[in-house]
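pasting for the record
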Amino acid sequence: MKYIFDFDDTLLDTRKLKEAIFSVLEKNGVSRETSLERYLGHRASKKPFNLKFFLNSVLAWETEDSSRAEKLYEDIMAECPKFLNQKMLEAIQRIGPENCYIVTEGEEEFQMDKIARSGLYPKYFPRERIKITDRDKSEDVASICEANKSESVIFIDDKRRHFTKIDRERCNNLTTIPYDELHPVFLTNEGTSAEIKRK
């Protein structure tokens, strides 16, 4: 059995990462209101989020000094291990990392840095089992299903919209499981179906 994990809000608590971003900026003279306004403006542009670019733009806008952005980036990213979903990490360890993939949507450099700094790469996921896309995930999910035709594949994501575009003919060995932090999914590699227990 193979498992595909989403990254943001499934393996990593991105709400805590966002809070760290706003907190670090606030400690460096940028009001939370300004940071949030700039963040929402950046997200509304529909461009993949890159923290370095965001910090540079906020600091240049507020202080006309973007030279501090790299230090603030390091301060924020050093916190990534604290934001890792420990229940999901335990599931990956039980399942066996060799049976697991990450398929995530976002800007490649930033996504890869989050995955690495959280401790998942390379310890649990070699680069070839990490798929980063700036479009929908359906093609990457389909390629994993086709590469593992003789096995069941479980895809876990917090956003159900990623399940709707999947080609079910190409992915006839796929089961989708929506991840909900209030009712976490606990997985085992026993048998041909996931064992799902609700708290």
